[in-house]
Structure to design on (409 residues):
C-alpha cells in the first residue's frame, strides 16, 4: 500500500504541509517495501493558477491508496483525486510526517469523503 | 513555540466591509499580528495601514510568448492555435500582443522553427512593510493588466507566516481575495479560521453561501459578521436564520454608521474615529482570538 503525504520537507521529521496544491513536496511511503520516496512539487508552486489539479495529476502517476494532508484539496483537485479511489485524510497539519503516519495507523485521522 | 494562527477575512461579495474589518483587526491586534493583504487586484488596505514599502521583490505570475522575427518562417501556426487571439499579423509579419497573451505556451509548442520562447513576465511587486502601529504587513502591487493568482496569495501568506515566526507573533491576519476562484482557494488553504463579513442584501447572502462551500472544502471553520445589519432588518433575519442553520458562529452585528464614511475620507480605520465601533470590534477580535485557541 502506498501512502502520500503533503510535506514541507523531504524526511519523516518534516512537517505536514496544510496546503495540497502548493505543497513543496509529496512524500510517498511504500508499506510493503518500507521505503519513503520524495516527489519534488516545487514546479507546481511556481504556477500562477491551477496548482491543485496539477498536483492531483502528479498523484495519478503514483496512484497512492491513501492521501494524508492538511486543509485538503480544493474542488477541482478533488474531482481529479476522486477517480483514483484513494482514501483522503485531512487536518494532519501541525504534525510531522512520522506523527501523521502514527495517527493514521491508530485511526486518529479524520477521513474526508469526496 | 506556539503555532501561528492564520485568520482569513472573506466576503464573497465586494463592498460588504471585509477590508474595513480586517484593517480594524490589524490595528487592534497591534504587534500580535502580521498582516497579509491577499486582496491584490484592487489592494486598498495600505491606504489605511500606511505601510512604508520597506522591502520589495519582483513577482512573476506567469510566462509571456516572445517571438524572434529572425527565425520566424511566417507559417502562421502560432496565430492558428492561439485561443486568446494574441498573435497579430500585419505588414507581412507576426507579432505577439503582450497584454492578450495568457502565457499558455501553445504557440511556442507548435512553432516549427523554434522562433517563440516563453519568458517569465514581471506581474508586479511584493512588499514587506512596517505599518503605522509598529507591526509588519506583506502586500503586493500588480502591473497594469496583471491579475491576482493563487501563487501570489501563497507568496504573500508564506512571507507573512515566516515573519510571524521570526518575530514571535501569534497571528497572521489575511485580507482574503474576493470571489471564490483560485486566489480564494489559496487564501483558505493553510488558514486556521475564516471570518466571513456579510451584509443584509440578497447578493451578499448568495455570495456568502458560495464562499462557505469553499471554506467547507478546505476544512476551515467559518465565523460570521453581519455588517450594516440595520439597513435591512428583514434580510438580516434571513441571514441569521441561514447561519444558525449552518451552525456558523455569529460573531457580531455591526451597524451602518456615517462614521465609516468619515473614516474612509480621512484614510483611517473606523476604530480610529469612532470609540463605540472600536469597542465593538475589539470585543469581536477578542472572540476570534478565543476561538482560534480551539482550532
Amino acid at each position: 500500500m502506498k501512502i502520500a503525504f503533503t510535506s514541507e520537507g523531504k524526511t519523516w521529521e518534516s512537517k505536514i504541509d496544510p496546503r495540497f496544491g502548493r505543497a513543496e513536496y509529496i512524500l510517498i511511503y511504500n508499506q510493503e517495501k518500507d521505503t519513503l520516496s520524495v516527489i519534488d512539487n516545487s514546479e507546481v508552486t511556481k504556477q500562477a493558477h491551477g496548482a491543485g489539479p496539477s498536483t492531483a495529476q502528479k498523484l495519478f502517476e503514483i496512484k497512492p491508496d491513501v492521501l494524508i494532508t492538511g486543509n485538503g484539496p480544493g474542488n477541482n483537485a478533488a474531482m481529479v483525486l476522486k477517480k483514483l479511489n484513494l482514501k483522503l485524510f485531512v487536518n494532519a497539519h501541525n504534525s510531522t510526517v512520522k506523527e501523521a503516519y502514527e495517527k493514521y495507523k491508530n485511526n486518529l485521522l479524520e477521513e474526508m469523503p469526496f | 513555540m506556539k503555532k501561528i494562527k492564520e485568520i482569513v477575512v472573506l466576503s464573497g461579495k465586494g463592498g460588504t466591509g471585509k477590508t474595513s474589518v480586517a484593517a480594524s483587526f490589524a490595528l487592534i491586534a497591534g504587534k500580535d499580528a502580521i498582516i497579509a493583504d491577499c486582496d491584490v487586484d484592487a489592494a486598498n488596505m495600505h491606504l489605511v495601514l500606511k505601510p512604508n514599502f520597506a522591502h520589495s521583490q519582483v513577482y512573476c505570475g506567469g510566462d509571456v510568448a516572445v517571438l524572434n522575427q529572425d527565425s520566424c518562417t511566417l507559417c502562421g501556426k502560432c496565430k492558428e492555435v492561439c485561443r486568446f487571439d494574441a498573435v497579430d499579423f500585419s505588414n507581412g509579419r507576426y507579432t505577439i500582443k503582450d497584454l492578450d497573451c495568457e502565457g499558455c505556451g501553445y504557440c511556442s509548442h507548435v512553432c516549427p522553427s523554434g522562433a517563440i520562447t516563453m519568458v517569465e513576465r514581471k506581474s508586479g511587486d511584493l512588499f514587506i512593510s512596517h505599518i503605522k502601529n509598529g507591526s509588519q504587513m506583506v502586500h503586493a502591487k500588480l502591473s497594469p493588466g496583471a491579475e491576482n493568482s493563487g501563487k501570489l496569495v501563497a507568496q504573500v501568506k508564506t512571507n507573512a507566516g515566516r515573519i510571524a515566526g521570526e518575530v514571535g507573533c501569534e497571528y497572521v491576519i489575511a485580507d482574503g481575495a474576493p470571489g471564490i476562484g483560485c486566489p480564494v482557494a489559496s487564501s483558505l488553504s493553510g488558514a486556521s479560521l475564516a471570518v466571513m463579513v456579510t451584509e443584509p442584501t440578497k447578493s451578499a447572502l448568495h455570495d456568502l453561501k458560495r464562499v462557505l462551500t469553499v471554506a467547507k472544502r478546505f476544512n476551515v471553520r467559518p465565523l460570521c459578521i453581519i455588517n450594516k445589519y440595520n439597513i435591512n432588518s428583514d434580510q438580516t433575519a434571513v441571514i441569521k436564520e441561514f447561519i444558525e442553520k449552518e451552525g456558523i458562529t455569529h460573531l457580531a452585528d455591526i451597524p451602518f454608521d456615517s462614521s465609516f464614511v468619515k473614516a474612509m475620507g480621512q484614510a483611517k480605520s473606523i476604530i480610529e474615529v469612532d470609540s463605540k465601533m472600536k469597542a465593538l470590534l475589539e470585543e469581536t477580535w477578542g472572540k476570534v482570538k478565543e476561538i482560534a485557541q480551539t482550532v
The two ends of chain A are 20 Å apart (CA to CA). The CA atoms of residues 15 and 95 of chain A lie 6 Å apart.
